[in-house]
């Protein structure tokens, strides 16, 4: 390991024990959050290292997803295989998957990519399910808490959002294994085959939540992409009332979180998501 990368002493020591003499070949870190992502070479094999800072809560989720949910994908080469993990140290190492991110490439507009992504998601969601009495109430309270933080949502919209959220019921819902950030920036394509990365938001949730990012982005002006995705998935999990609640929750969280981390592009998307939900449900 070379100098200049934001790994703790303990993380460096663990990594030196797991992959002694490994060389960094690329830094994939985003810079907006405290997660370092490095591509390493060790004895001719490539690995991806993820390391979280003291505030990180994503590495434990990612480690558990690898342990509990990813075998149906890794067995087919559609997700990276976990080699090492230490949840307490917030460090994990996976084998490098060949391919390029779908986001920003021609494949981002290719229905076949979305059909494959739908098939992969159905496999993940279909592994297990549990009925939950707390999810909707906790999700509502979290959305309300986002509105209490600094943001640039107008006061009148905030007032209406609060009234909307406070009126929501909290029915029992079915939770399944979800990715949590299902979109082309977390899909790899290699020789026409889609694989999946980045499981830091993986958690049990309603299946429809994994369609939120696509609905706000690629599906918004891409009906053929949406149709291909749903064909691959097998059905549309978006029950209308639950989908309405999820759209408002996602829109608020996006606008507020992006403002907090200074991601102006993503913040604009959050405000557009709020505007779209307002147009669809309040007019």
TrEMBL record:
Keyword terms, alphabetized: Transferase
InterPro entries cross-referenced by the UniProt entry: Aminoglycoside_PTrfase, Kinase-like_dom_sf
Keyword hit for Isomerase: no
GO molecular function: transferase activity
Gene3D superfamilies with a match to the protein in the record: 3.90.1200.10
Pfam family of the protein (one): APH
Stretches assigned to coiled coil: none
Domain spans labelled Aminoglycoside phosphotransferase: 42-242
Entry protein name: Aminoglycoside phosphotransferase
Source species of the chain: Amycolatopsis antarctica
